[in-house]
Design a protein that fits this description.
mainly alpha; about 0% strand; about 70% helix; flat; about 70 residues
Length: about 70
């Protein structure tokens, strides 16, 4: 079961997963205002990735997305 979950996560949007981990950890020790600013930075970073462009194209084409970690 653990290996299946790990495999599924590894094939997902790893850049976005890293941003979630980073912003969640940051929010634990910072104010809401600071946390939202960090979240905005993370969203901008993720929105500029090749994975994001590919996933939007896949969504519009009604196809499954594939992620490469960039």
């Amino acid at each position: 079961v653990v290996a299946a979950i790990a495999t599924k996560l590894a094939g997902g949007p790893t850049t976005a997963y890293a941003a979630i981990k980073e912003t969640t950890a940051y929010a634990a020790s910072h104010s809401l205002t600071e946390s939202l600013a960090r979240e905005a930075e993370a969203q901008a970073r993720c929105g500029g990735t090749e994975d994001h462009a590919n996933s939007v194209a896949a969504f519009l084409a009604k196809e499954p997305a594939s992620f490469i970690g960039r």
